[in-house]
Amino acid sequence: MRIMAIDYGDARTGIAVSDATGMLAGYTAVVQGRKAEQVAAEVARIAKERDADTLVLGFPRNMDGSEGARAELYRTFADLLKKETGLTPVLWDERRTTIEAHDILHAGGKRMKQHKKNVDAVAASLILEGYLTRLRMEQGGRE
Question: How far apart are CA 32 and CA 38, in angstroms?
Fold first, then answer.
């Protein structure tokens, strides 16, 4: 089982794909692009190349849990991903992932100017980590 997490953005989209066991992030990338159709096609190419069978799309929510202003844009992108891949993306609460990604990069000694090229992939890894943790918790409850 390979899971691909997607941190969709206006200019850059972060990608993180789990290893074959579905336990760890095994691959990360950043897709450059502003046109949703082109980004979806590139995400689909990577999903096929990496044998992803589950897509997890970071979904914007407000701090109170309500849907963010950009929610409809992300739902439309999820529909594009479904058309391109045949997989229905899981919409995953992405609150604070970009902030946490910046914190991780800063703690690693990166200056703010250096964050741009990596922050989206780190944010996608955080989305993937959260989703994998939930899967492990659910599986632990069934045993």
Answer: 9
Is residue 103 predicted with pLDDT exceeding 80? no
Instruction: Answer left, alpha or beta for residue 115, where phi above 0 means left and psi between -120 and 50 means alpha.
Output: alpha
DSSP for 1-34, please give it: --EEEEE--SSEEEEEEE-TTSSSEEEEEEEE-S
Contact 131, 5 (CB under 8 A): yes
Residue with tokens 């502003």: 34
Structural tokens at position 125: 């890894």
Question: What is the reported pTM?
Answer: 0.85
Query: In the predicted model, what is the mean pLDDT of residues 68-91?
Result: 95
Residue 16 near residue 138, CB atoms below 8 Å: no
What DSSP string describes 35-48?
-HHHHHHHHHHHHH
